[in-house]
């Protein structure tokens, strides 16, 4: 059959819209909510940390479960859309209680809200990412689709970062107001975003459903037995680890090492402004050199930027601004390319096994990123503390130098590891084109948009 034309820019913007409420909720969840719940609602940091940890453990179960179930879903509306619609409803309801909590919040009530919040989030995010990998079977079109998702996400993150600043201008230090503004963005965008995503594109035809139901052991074996997927997961774990080591320490670095606490939030915002332009730049590079080579190049650029931080001093704030600008333009290159590669690996797996596990592969890809986020905090904060840094005390020059070393070298090492893991990746454009040719020959009714 004749392949459908590639989706237009307008269609891809509409399709990517659901990334707005997901991003708008994700940033406060990791940065603002713990502090606000502790300061304004009276929960202890230990309790909050434990509840959020249990939520992440729940992710370890729900991500691959929903990925596998969405792969096997068969409805007249497709297999991804019902999950996105149902998950969006749960996500919206849980967001009301999370961002507009009643008085008298307890650990149990917070735990229940987070349970349903993470469930709804996963039910939207995993099928959405898998669907994005299925929109086209073309090697470069997949990078283009992932780029639109990345740019929309970066734009939503930028807007979300602005809201606490606005709240501080209205009522400084009012955590409830900050929470209300950020929650308002989530709730105002969720319904239009869902409608936009669900109506922007048609799902591709459904592949044949295997007769036997997958078992847990078989599902794990499918992941562990796919070495190219494991390389992609490890590479993305490393790049995400690098990004969140930097995120965990940037406020301390700017406030204490640079002595510019007034820039602690602004510098993060400055980076995201230029991050919006990063996606199209790396898309062009990816078209020229291929995904894995572009991922390697992006990671090596990040290594150079982070090592250059070693030359920053409190007197060279301009150099820090320049490196932050470069960081913004380079950020996400690895994540973007690796996300697009997951769909290519899923094609290879389907050709070899006959099973379509795109949703499962994207679920473990998401899980690897979440694990790296948690690991970054668990590595960076104890390490700088061991080196003598204490945000509650007067720090010696040696302690501040230790903070600088971890802030600069930690991400540089992780980015280097990410590049090494994905270098010489065998599934390039030529290899993937052959896989697509054989898949389309064996299942001509499943031709993708090229």
TrEMBL record:
Protein name according to UniProt: Na+/melibiose symporter
Species, as recorded: Sphingopyxis indica
Q: Which residues cross the membrane?
A: 12-35, 41-61, 82-100, 106-124, 145-167, 179-201, 263-283, 359-384, 404-427
The family note in this entry says: Belongs to the sodium:galactoside symporter (TC 2.A.2) family.
The entry lists its GO molecular-function terms as: symporter activity
Can you supply one Gene Ontology CC term for this chain's record? plasma membrane
Q: Which UniProt keywords apply?
A: Membrane, Transmembrane, Transmembrane helix
One Pfam family of this chain = MFS_2
A Gene Ontology annotation in the biological process aspect, one of them, is: carbohydrate transport
